[in-house]
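Job type: complex structure
Entries:
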Amino acid sequence: MTALKGTGPLETTKAGGQPAESEGRTIYRRPSLLSNPTSYCPGCGHGIIHRLVAEVLEELGLGERTILVGSVGCSVFAYDYLALDAVESPHGRAPAVATGVKRVRPDRVVFTYQGDGDLAAIGSAEILHAAARGERITVIFVNNGIYGMTGGQMAPTTLIGQRTTSSPTGRDPAVAGYPLPVTELLSLLPGVAYAARVSVADPGLIGRAKAAIRRAFEVQLEDTGLAIVEVLSTCPVGWGMTPTEAMDHLAHEVMDAYPTGTFTDRGKGIAPAMPAPAGKRTAAGGANRPQPAEA
Amino acid sequence: MAVLDRSAVTDRERAAASPPETGGEASPASPLPDRVLMKGNEAIAEAAIAAGCDAYFGYPITPQAELLEWMARRMPEEGRVFVQAESELAAINMALGAAATGARVLVSSSSPGISLMAEGMSYMAGSRLPVVLVNVMRGGPGLGSIGAAQGDYFQATKGHGHGDYNVPVLAPASIAEAIDLVGDAFVLAERYRTPVMILADGILGQAMEPVAPHFRSIPRLPADWTVEGASGREPRVLKSLSLRAEDLERQNLVLQANFAEIAARESRWAGESLDDAEVIVVAYGTAARVARTAVQRARDDGLRAGLFRPITLWPFPAAALRAAAAGARAVLAVELSAGQMVEDVRLAIEGAVPVFHHGRMGGMVPRPDEVVTAMRRAWSVTLGDDPDRASGGVR
């Protein structure tokens, strides 16, 4: 049912009101890499996803060598809540910024945290080419199907028929096209080592989301290519719903349209068969081209 | 070629109002070693490598493509980072990320690509990230042409992107000077934590000139602001964002104080034959090469002409120009544009001396004789100090 009433990872009080210490078992503690309580709207998924990232980095012991590349949108507040070294990006450019960081500091763990307007619209070129180059970065892609920060406008990920402030009668594919399945598209590229879609609609799904985020950082340590986790999330204010309704909507409407699962995990043999135009390393590929003369 | 008919050696001995303290082996007094013939784009690239450039990001565009190609070959040889980006947008943002770690970064492009980099420049200025950006200017607006032009002066000196910021802009007039200025640009970028632009043009990028292979290495400053993972210290965030008005104003005041210091300390220029000059030509880059020839021809013809050549376009050497022009009868700005730098010339001179402009556009370069004619016209329509001339020739 609704995640907010459940037990498990989301529970923020000690089980049964008993001090956890007396049972010798910690049910919940704030990850050390989460610095401040978030100011996100009630029912927003960012707080959950921030916590999952913080837990994973802490459990992997990576906090002190990780650099966060921020983005623009509600996720711009991640700087305030994740106790990590961080660098700002212009809207959509986080994968390019992360490329710059990682290329000069390959010994560091570098990840972007981007929303769907940022990654799937204005930053579509940057994510596509970072993926094509196989940059050794991790991408946390939070998809709530809307531009939350600017007042709930239509995003490339907005569902058909969904009402937003810029599609007031519902997204009409005749004029606004179709939702963009970015993660499936990226999963085909040989430079992408890991691509998965998860959801935060209930505690079980949140546990699976954490496992995917963990795997996406492990893949970076394996140095095999770009890792992306799309996290389906909520925007109760932008959707015009209560937090409970929004979680319900996420669990049904959104997850029906965007299937969750692991699309690519090359290290574990999950690799969609896309014929990659790799060339044959012949003259046409440039290998036989005369080398420039020495200066 | 007319614009290249002079020696490449610049008048550096008069050049510096306040030269940056650069390290390495800058020793102009020592005898020059053998000279090599280098293309401007390649010389700039090699100078950056010698300076200690850790990473280069670029995208092909004429007339700067050789710079990218040189880096594609040389940077991996040196074990450094080269990435051909998918766009100039991506290139400048890769530079942003690399610079945030404290790496020494070079980016290059030409006019249309610089427009795409404007966003990243604004962010880097706001986040105080050093980078050296080379603009090998071509004809505009729009796709324009691939010929040499100086139509990007406003863009370079009045800010590329949004917001209140400036970046130092260095304008070489020869390939030898471009080599020097690459090292200086890295010094300025790191000393002031700011983007720095080298404003060249298609001729400087494409032409070959003999240069001394005398490239400087630049020492590194300690940096306590870089991101590398928060190990044993509080996390650092490099950003321009500041949503509270009071905070953002404070942040802007810090930037402005930095700009004021740059303006006070780093303006540079070179002059020739200024002491008794009646007509002073103000020109930079390739236009200054033409102007120099024109000034010499005018002198040969009996017109007392002088050349004032800004090396920093921002900060514009306004006080020096005002002083140099104090005894002159007319000032003539010569540009490969419709008239952009001439606005800074007028601001500098504050009406004390009449200011004229001669410009060509679209890749056209004025002939020296054309500039001499413009100088004579400026002389003839101004009054000067001689009362006999005061009545005649006013248009």
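Summary: Chain B has twelve helices and 15 strands. Chain B has two domains: 19-24+32-228+237-265, 270-389.
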